[in-house]
Design a protein that fits this description.
Elements: E1 7-10, H1 16-27, E2 31-35, H2 40-54, E3 58-61, H3 68-82, E4 87-90, H4 105-133, E5 136-141, H5 154-173, E6 179-186, H6 192-205, H7 209-217, H8 229-239, E7 251-254
Parallel strand pairs: 1-2, 1-4, 2-3, 4-5, 5-6, 6-7
The protein binds nicotinamide-adenine-dinucleotide (NAD).
Nicotinamide-adenine-dinucleotide binds at residues 12-18, 35-38, 64-66, 91-94, 114-115, 141, 143, 186, 188-189, 191-194.
GO molecular function: 3-hydroxybutyrate dehydrogenase activity
Protein name: 3-hydroxybutyrate dehydrogenase
Organism: Sphingopyxis flava
């Protein structure tokens, strides 16, 4: 229970990796703010389940992170209801797969806003409170695509490389303030985000579903296994511990060996 009395805001945590990270932090006693879209009853059930895990508070904020004003309002609510944000996990993200010539400009704008700019806004709003408390943890779910590229994912690769750069720059700025800033870079994790890109990848490359899974998604992952949500979440939880106080500015791969090649 090393996080008792601390509050974690995990963006994009109504499903997938974000929900897994929220659970892993709740187990250690953190109050949790989850965020994202989805079915209201399902979200309420997850919120209640988090309160059972942490024995404390869990709140849901429906902020659309593509809108800076909504992020500001979310932080104002976090301050009023939870006493601020001690652990910020910038996890929300989306994907779009298309050749560059056909890449819709509005999809580029959406991916940059959600996968990169929302992290900038959340960090700039979180740092003043963390400086006051002389403690903070900022974690981003980046991606193997923050280190290497794949074709047809220009916006995603650009945003994730940007997120890794943002992590390094801010880590240096707050290094002497008790705040660490890191990103976790998973390979392919079996979540709705991966499931949803299979049809577009089938179309873009002219492949079957099985070919996309085995020859595209797992082709570059030497373990030939999808990473699990729990494996990513366990690393996020470790980064909140005192033992991780000197891990900062790092880009930590959980990718089955993908980026070692
Ligand atoms: P997911 O689709 O399961 O979850 C995405 C979350 O973001 C959901 O909670 C969704 O409601 C939320 N969201 C979407 N648009 C939003 C908006 N405008 N405002 C607020 N919330 C919004 O996806 P996931 O696979 O769990 O991905 C989470 C993160 O992990 C993303 O940043 C993704 O790029 C990254 N990632 C995923 C994989 C993978 O293989 N699944 C690999 C590497 C990195």
């Amino acid at each position: 229970m090393h996080l008792k009395g601390k509050t974690a805001l995990v963006t994009g945590s109504t499903s997938g990796i974000g929900l897994g990270i929220a659970k892993a932090l709740a187990v250690h006693g953190a109050n949790i703010i989850i965020n994202g879209f989805g079915d209201a009853d399902a979200i309420e059930a997850e919120r209640k389940a988090l309160e059972e895990l942490n024995g404390g508070k869990a709140a849901y904020d429906s902020a659309d992170l593509t809108k800076p004003a909504a992020i500001e309002a979310m932080f104002a609510r976090a301050e009023a209801d939870m006493g601020g944000v001690d652990i910020l996990v910038n996890n929300a993200g989306t994907q779009f797969v298309s050749p560059i010539e056909d890449f819709p400009a509005e999809k580029w704008d959406l991916i940059l806003a959600l996968n990169l700019s929302s992290a900038f806004h959340a960090i700039r709003l979180a740092v003043p409170g963390m400086r006051k408390k002389k403690w903070g943890r900022i974690i981003a779910t980046a991606s193997a695509h923050s280190l290497v590229a794949s074709p047809f994912k220009s916006a995603y690769v650009a945003a994730k490389h940007g997120l890794a750069g943002l992590t390094k720059a801010v880590a240096l700025e707050v290094a002497d303030a008790g705040i660490t800033v890191n990103c976790i870079s998973p390979g392919y994790v079996w979540t709705p985000l991966v499931e949803n890109q299979i049809p577009d990848t089938m179309k873009a490359r002219g492949l079957t579903r099985e070919q996309v899974i085995n020859d595209v998604l797992l082709a570059g992952q030497p373990t030939k296994q999808f990473v699990t949500v729990e494996q990513v979440a366990a690393l996020a939880a470790f980064l909140t511990r005192d033992e991780a106080a000197n891990i900062t500015g790092a880009n930590l791969s959980v990718d089955g060996g993908w980026t070692a090649a």
